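seq:
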Amino acid sequence: MSKEARRAFRLDNEVLAFRFTATVSDRASDTPVERLHDPARLGLWLDVNGLGTGSELTSAELSRALELRETIYRIGAATAQRTSPDASDIDTINASAAAGHATIALEGGNAHWRLTETALVADALGVLANDAIQAIGGPHRSHIKTCEGSGCAGLFLDTSRGANRRWCSMNTCGNKVKKSRLAAR
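struct:
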């Protein structure tokens, strides 16, 4: 993984679809930060997450990806708040999942996604939509939460023993909260 990718993106979320929603940081702040500001950045994110297309992406593909990302976020946040997601969001995520035809393959002892040659981005978005559907509609849906970190509101799956995790990542949001508490003392 390149240094640029490590600096550019949050890659610490175990749920791929929620990692995708983290391409907007500080969602709950007055100044959210968009990390997918052009098609090349989307390509970089897909590459570092095993969904690389190997081709230049278009503005239209970026728009579709951003629409899916925000749909996943809205459905995930509704699930975390124990409310029903909007029916149009359900239609969008289901359509994205159905449009993809990627397959998973075992190569060199590791799982890798194989995208079709004719619909690379649709396949990658289909993988993300399917991952979101499995997380949001699966048996652990009651463990989906939004981060309590100042301004964050990122989605995560709370797999802690007591189901009392408060932050999307201890290394980022949790650490910021603990540092601010220490500074206040």
